[in-house]
């Protein structure tokens, strides 16, 4: 326990300085951030550059960014037919107006990607209940808008009630209401409340609106998930209250670094996903020729498994607490995604005996459904490859 | 386990139509209502029997979203069968079929057997696409058609197995060049040795290791 306490102390000392030594902080974080106080959410904000190293700047940065985020919500999360400057041009605008200036046109276009976001956030981390729980700090202008600013309300499938009418003998009529809606665990909350998944939905919606060149790509939900979870679990209530805004900026910062993974036309570029997979493959060849040759002989190409590993920063391969621990190291990496490749390589090497024995199908399954194991084994192995 | 033939399949269609659930129902006989979304491709395998012969199906389940199209396209090559899936409760997934079909035809070998599947047939009260419309589309484009439910497992076996039967018949008719692996078919060691087209060693069939599938 004393070693743990000493580690916490090291973090606290580093974070107590007026100007944070980022190099020292990275060093500390790469071995994992202790799960106490607000250490992790604060370290992630620093590692992602949302907060600068100068401590005196923090309160003004946070105030400015959070207020700006508030404006994004006010201006972009709108009831149908309302212009982004807040005007409602009833005379000229109507739902069938396809003109480029039509607020309705924007509304319908937004709904196309919103529908996608809606589907995806409702399947975020289904093995834990966190995202289905109500947040303590719902966004007041949204949850008290009689549903008008609730994003998922826009894309909810409206189903007309149908009924079977059975006539039995003279004048006796039986009406069986058909009610077969599937049970939803990711339920929408009542007026005044909202669930964490609704907050994540809004973050992704705003990101897509503000980054139209990229929009929303599936998998972004898996990237925002761990960040939001860390921010929204901050023990400090003041930080927790602004988890949404802080998460938005941290997510935006991370996306700026990995956006190439999510843009189809950049697949072949240097930072693109194909090059990352190639680098992993070369790393494996260098470290374990036998395994490399085995996979190659089986025509088991890196894209069969490493595409998802890399593009989602391993967020789908391990349980959330392990993902968060992995991200401590990945975010602490100065050449950001080099260590990610070492982790991926370690994951393959740890399974080497299996891989050398298995046939093609078993190997694909092994690598696509990575078996549960102590994450520290993987990280230690990865560090030894560096 | 050894097999007579190995067929490669690909499952395509819009996101959220139930591609991964169909695969899971077929390979594991279970339904998972909230499924992780598919990024890139996922893999499944199962052995079936046709005409007394063991046939191994290797199935690639692809991501539905447009952004992944350049990654999933490479899987068309080398597929003997494709399941093209739409959701009967969402009209737009039916409207996109033409695009999917064009994509598949462009990037696959010309003999690939395509099965059109209207999934979620258990959600009758929310149906937006009539069964007749699916049938008409299939007829017009020369596809086999079936409505399935990954939830209740209705027609799921049939969808995968009927596709395999079509491929098997095409092999018997000599339509497929089974020595060309780009067609998505491999011959296993269980195959009758009298067959002159038996290739040399070097394929994975019957390799000593026991399998998980």
Description:
The complex is a heterodimer of chains A (386) and B (213). By secondary structure, chain A is mostly helical. Chain A folds into two domains: 35-82 and 98-154 and 194-258, no CATH class; 264-385, Orthogonal Bundle (Cyclin A, domain 1). Helix content of chain A is 54%, strand content 3%. Chain A has helices spanning 2-16, 22-29, 39-47, 58-76, 103-121, 140-143, 151-154, 196-210, 220-232, 237-241, 243-258, 273-287, 289-297, 306-311, 320-332, 338-350, 352-357, 360-368, 375-385; strands at 163-168, 172-177. Chain A is globular. With 213 residues, chain B is α/β, with parallel strands linked by helices. Chain B has a single domain (3-185), classed as P-loop containing nucleotide triphosphate hydrolases (Rossmann fold, 3-Layer(aba) Sandwich), CATH 3.40.50. In chain B, strands 1, 2, 3, 4, 5, 6 and 7 form a seven-stranded mixed beta sheet that branches. In chain B, β5, α5 (131-141) and β6 form a beta-alpha-beta unit. The longest helix of chain B has 17 residues, at 156-172. The relative contact order of chain B is 0.20. The model of chain B is unreliable at 193-211 (pLDDT under 50). Chains A and B meet through α5, α14 and α18 of A and β2 and α2 of B.
Describe the secondary-structure layout.
The complex is a heterodimer of chains A (386) and B (213).
Chain A: H1 2-16, H2 22-29, H3 39-47, H4 58-76, H5 103-121, H6 140-143, H7 151-154, E1 163-168, E2 172-177, H8 196-210, H9 220-232, H10 237-241, H11 243-258, H12 273-287, H13 289-297, H14 306-311, H15 320-332, H16 338-350, H17 352-357, H18 360-368, H19 375-385
Antiparallel strand pairs in A: 1-2
Chain B: E1 5-12, H1 19-28, E2 41-50, E3 53-62, H2 69-76, E4 81-87, H3 91-95, H4 97-107, E5 113-119, H5 131-141, E6 144-147, H6 156-172, E7 185-187
Parallel strand pairs in B: 1-3, 1-4, 4-5, 5-6
Antiparallel strand pairs in B: 1-7, 2-3
GO cellular component, one term (chain A): membrane
Keywords (chain A): Cytoplasm, GTPase activation, Membrane
Subunit structure (chain A): Interacts with RAB1A and RAB10; in a GTP-dependent manner.
């Amino acid at each position: 326990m004393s070693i743990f306490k000493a580690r916490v102390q090291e973090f606290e000392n580093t974070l107590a300085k007026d100007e944070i030594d980022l190099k020292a902080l990275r060093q500390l974080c790469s071995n994992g951030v202790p799960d106490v106080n607000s250490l992790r959410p604060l370290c992630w904000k620093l590692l992602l550059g949302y907060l600068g190293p100068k401590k005196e700047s923090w309160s003004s940065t946070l105030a400015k960014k959070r207020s700006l985020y508030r404006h994004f919500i006010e201006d972009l999360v709108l009831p149908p037919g309302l212009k982004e400057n807040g005007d409602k041009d009833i005379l000229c605008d109507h739902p069938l107006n396809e003109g480029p200036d039509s607020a309705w046109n924007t509304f319908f276009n937004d709904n196309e990607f919103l529908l996608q976001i809606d589907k995806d956030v409702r399947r975020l981390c289904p093995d834990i209940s966190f995202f289905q729980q109500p947040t303590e700090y719902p966004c007041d202008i949204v949850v008290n808008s009689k549903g008008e600013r609730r994003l998922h309300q826009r894309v909810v499938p409206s189903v007309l009630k149908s009924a079977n009418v059975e006539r039995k003998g003279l004048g006796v009529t039986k009406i069986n209401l058909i009610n077969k809606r599937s049970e939803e665990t990711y339920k929408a909350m009542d007026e005044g409340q909202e669930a964490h998944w609704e907050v994540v939905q809004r973050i992704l919606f705003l990101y897509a609106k503000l980054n139209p060149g990229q929009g929303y790509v599936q998998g972004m939900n898996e990237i925002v998930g761990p960040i939001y979870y860390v921010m929204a679990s901050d023990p400090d209530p003041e930080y927790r209250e602004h988890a949404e805004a802080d998460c938005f900026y941290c997510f935006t910062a991370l996306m700026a670094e990995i956006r190439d993974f999510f843009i189809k036309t950049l697949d072949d570029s240097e930072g693109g996903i194909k090059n990352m997979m190639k680098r992993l493959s070369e790393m494996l060849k260098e470290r374990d020729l036998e395994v490399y040759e085995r996979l190659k002989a089986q025509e088991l190409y890196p894209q069969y498994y490493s595409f998802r590993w890399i593009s989602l920063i391993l967020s789908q391969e391990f349980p959330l607490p392990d993902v968060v621990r992995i991200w401590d190291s990945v975010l602490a990496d100065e050449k950001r995604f080099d260590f990610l490749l070492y982790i991926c390589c370690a994951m393959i090497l740890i399974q080497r005996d299996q891989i050398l024995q298995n046939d093609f199908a078993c190997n694909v399954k092994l690598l696509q459904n990575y078996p549960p194991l102590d994450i520290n084994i993987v990280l230690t192995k990865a560090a030894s490859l560096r | 386990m050894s097999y007579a033939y190995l067929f490669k399949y690909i499952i395509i269609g819009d996101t959220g139509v139930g591609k991964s659930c169909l695969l899971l129902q077929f390979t594991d006989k279970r339904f998972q209502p909230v499924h992780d979304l598919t990024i890139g491709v996922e893999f499944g395998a199962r052995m079936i029997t046709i005409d007394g012969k063991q046939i191994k199906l290797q199935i690639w389940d692809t991501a539905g979203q447009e952004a992944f199209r350049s990654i999933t396209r490479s899987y068309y090559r080398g597929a003997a069968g494709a399941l093209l899936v739409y959701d009967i409760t969402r009209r737009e997934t039916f409207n996109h079929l033409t695009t999917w079909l064009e994509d598949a035809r462009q990037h696959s070998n010309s003999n690939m057997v395509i099965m059109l599947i209207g999934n979620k047939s258990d959600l009758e009260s929310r149906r937006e696409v009539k069964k007749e419309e699916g049938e008409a589309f299939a007829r017009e484009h020369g596809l086999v058609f079936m409505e399935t439910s990954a939830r209740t497992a209705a027609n799921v076996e049939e969808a995968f197995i009927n596709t395999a039967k079509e491929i098997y018949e095409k092999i018997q008719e000599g339509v497929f060049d089974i020595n060309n692996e780009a067609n998505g078919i491999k011959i296993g060691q269980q195959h009758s040795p009298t067959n002159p087209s038996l290739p040399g060693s070097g394929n994975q069939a019957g390799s000593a290791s026991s399998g998980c599938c």
